[in-house]
Each structure stands twice: as C-alpha cells, then as structure tokens.
Amino acid sequence: MKKEISIGLLGLGVVGSGVIKIVEDHQEDLQHQLGCGVKVEKVLVRDMEKARKIAVDETLLTTNSADVLDNPNIDVIIEVMGGVDTAREYILTALKAKKHVVTANKDLIALHGPELEETARENGCDLFYEASVGGGIPLLRPLSDGLVSDRINQVMGIINGTTNYILTKMDKEGQSYEDALQKAQELGFAESDPTADVEGLDAARKMVILARLSFFTDVELDDVEVSGISTLALEDIEYGNKLNLTMKLIGFANRHDNKIEVSVQPTFLSKDHPLASVNDEFNAVYVSGEQVGETMFYGPGAGSLPTATAVMSDVVATIKNMLLGVNGKKFVKTRFEKQLAPAEERFGQFYLRLRVKDETGAFASISDLFNKLGISFERILQTPVDKGAAEIVVVTHKTSLANFQNAMEQLKDLHVIETVESSYRVEGDA
Ligand code: NAP
Ligand code: HSE
User: Fold this and answer.
1) 343-427, superfamily in CATH?
2) Most exposed of 74, 332, 360, 410 (fewest Cβ within 10 Å)?
3) Domain parsing of the chain, residue ranges
4) What is the mean pLDDT of the chain?
5) Could you tell me the sign of the dihedral formed by the alpha carbons of 118, 124, 130, 131, in that order?
C-alpha cells in the first residue's frame, strides 16, 4: 500500500473547497484511521483566474481534464462539479482508467446511476455517493449496510436544504420568498440554478436514489410525482398556522404489496410531528423497516463542510477497501420488478382551500359532495374575504388519492365554487 493516496478533484466550488479544508485540517486523523496520508494532487476548474474561498496552491489547478483523469498518480477522483453530461463523461473515463470515484452529484446518479455502477463493477472500482442525499447526514451507508437485514417499507423526509431554509424564514421570520432564496444561495445551499431546488426536482432526484436503495427497484425520475414551493401562497402558511400545521417540502416513498409510490410535494405537517421542527437548511429522514420500526436521520442537509464530510467518508471507505483489496464489490442490485401503486391504492389526508360564494347552503353543497364520495372532514375553517365571497379551508380524514382527485374534479361543477385555490397533502395527526 502506498504511503500517500492521491486525489483528483473535479470542481473547487462550495463542496470542493470544503474537501480541501478537511484534507488539510484533518490530515493527522486521516493518517491515523488509514495508516497512510491523503493528498490532493490536481484540481480541475473552469476559470483559473477566479477568486477562491480557500487558499490553494495554484500549481494544483488546471482547466485540462486530462491532467486529472489521465494522471497516473491519482487513485481516487472526487467529482464535485455538478451537471450531468460532462460529469458522466469524466466519471466513465475515470472508472475505465481504474480510478475509484466519489461524487456528490445526485442529478447524475438519479439519471445514470445504474450505468455508472455497472461500469464501476466491470472495472473493479468503487463508486460512492453518500453526499448526494442529505448533505452531511450519514444516510446511504446506514440504509445499505446498517439496515441491510431488514425490509424497508417507507422513507419520508425533508431532503432539500434550500427549500427548508426558505420555508423556515418565511414562516418564522416573515421573510419574502425572494429574500430567503437569495440568502440560501449566498450560503452555498442552493444549486447553481436554484430552479431545481424550488421546483422540487433536486429532492425528486434524491428520492430516486433513496427509493432504489430502499426497495431494490429501478426507480426513475419519471416515476416521481413532483411539485415544488415556488407557487406557495403565504395565505396557506397562515391558514396552516391557525390549524396547527407547518408546511414542509416532503419526499415520500412507500412500498405496499411490492407496489411503490414516490413523491415530492409541499405537505402540511402537524406541528408536533418531529419533521415540523426541522428548520433552516437541516434535513431529516424517517426510514421505517419491518423489523427495526422507525429510525430517523437528522443533520445539516447542505453547505460546504457538512457535504465535504460526507464526500470524505466515501474517500475513507474507498481507501479502506483498497487496503482490504475489495474495491468494486459492494453494489445494490435491482431485485424486484417495478410496480407503481395506482391512485386508488395511495392514501392520505388532504388540505383544501376554496373560494366560495358567501350564500346560504354554500358549505352544505360542498359537504354533500364529499359525503357522497365517502370523504369526511377533520377540520373546517370559514373566513369572509370580501363582499359576497368567503374562503373555506378543510382538512379531510384519510382517503385515497383517486377519491380526492375525483372530488376536486366534481367541485369545479358546483355553482357555489368560485375557485379551488390550493390543495396539499397532510401528514401526521392534523
Ligand atoms: P459550485 O459551487 O457551483 O462548484 C462547481 C465547481 O465545479 C466550480 O469550481 C467550477 O469551476 C467547477 N466546474 C463546473 N463545471 C465544470 C467544467 N465543465 N469543467 C471544469 N470545472 C467545472 O457547486 P457545489 O455547490 O460545490 O456543488 C457541487 C456538486 O455537489 C453538485 O453536484 C451539487 O449538486 C452537489 N452538492 C452540493 C451541495 C451544497 O450544499 N452545495 C450539497 C450536496 C451536494 P469554477 O469555480 O472555475 O467555475
Ligand atoms: N441544493 C441542495 C439542497 C444541496 O439545498 O439541499 C444539497 O444537496
């Protein structure tokens, strides 16, 4: 075994800078754990002139990918550039050159994970991506190692730091959506294009990774029902407060009778639900197993050093595998044919805000429709909004998604309804 393992870093932004800092600050600890040093050999960037958040020996920097990918001294490549096509090409090149790869790139793993895993296996290389979900929270390794003897049936949680930061600042400090988003970008939580965060796509990619690892099924991005927070109205957050509910962007993956459902959507949680008190950029994920029951993983879901910690945990795992000579041996193989649960077999409670004509019998005609469909109300709020109109907010008891969608369709035909303003899933006891 070499006295020093050399790393090639692809990217020196928020996460890459954190990796450099950890390698520098924790060199002694790494040496103690591994019996060898860890050295950053080369760093690929786009712009050599750019001011960096961390001081780096300029001779390490390059804009030529071959200086990293074809470098015979480099044993492990860390990909923290982001993006899909170039990152995929570089990682395939690295694996074919028998270099182990660690990546934080959920976009890439969600879209091309199976192809990259196969290439890693063929070349006897490790491909790890702990940082791709949950930032600094150890999550993927506990799922695939710690809970390996169990059968996981549900994964539910807050898995996007940016949106959780925005929702927390809007709810607790009355900040505008735009101000909170800008701050999340400044703090390095958001993706380079934050649309992926606020529209739920980043969380959907993470749910693909979690669902694959949990259910041993080839879940794809198209299987995930996705909605984000960009159109969320402050009124709903305020109504939620009156109903003792907190709005969070929740990733949900469920398996029942080998049928799965995976979604990412703004969801109202009862304020005493443990996820309701997960604030700012923090993430938390519940994993329910048949034997273990409920486990919860909590910690910083984004940011330079937390994410770099997860990246470095993969580097350490890779080097330990090198010491044991077992690289490329540990992969989760697809086992079950994918079956998506239809709307008739997906159940939940729902919040609904309606703008109605403020006239006698208006509420009765709405409740008649829901009675007819067998949907009962758990909570009801009625507020006059202006002359002749009122807002009605209801929270239903548990019903199937199909039944609720049917009710939404039929509501449009009721003459008392002016508009269906919003509807959200509700979790926990409302
Ligand atoms: P970032 O701050 O935008 O940094 C990206 C870095 O990659 C920059 O240094 C950039 O070079 C370099 N780069 C990008 N495209 C390149 C190309 N084609 N050729 C050469 N260099 C290129 O991004 P980040 O926040 O560190 O995120 C990196 C990855 O980690 C992404 O996949 C992201 O989803 C993931 N991630 C981020 C976080 C987080 O909290 N930020 C958490 C978990 C996972 P220049 O600096 O020269 O422009
Ligand atoms: N943009 C992501 C987030 C980074 O806000 O959660 C961590 O994956």
Assistant:
1) ACT domain (3.30.70.260)
2) 360
3) 4-136+304-324, 156-300, 343-427
4) 95
5) negative
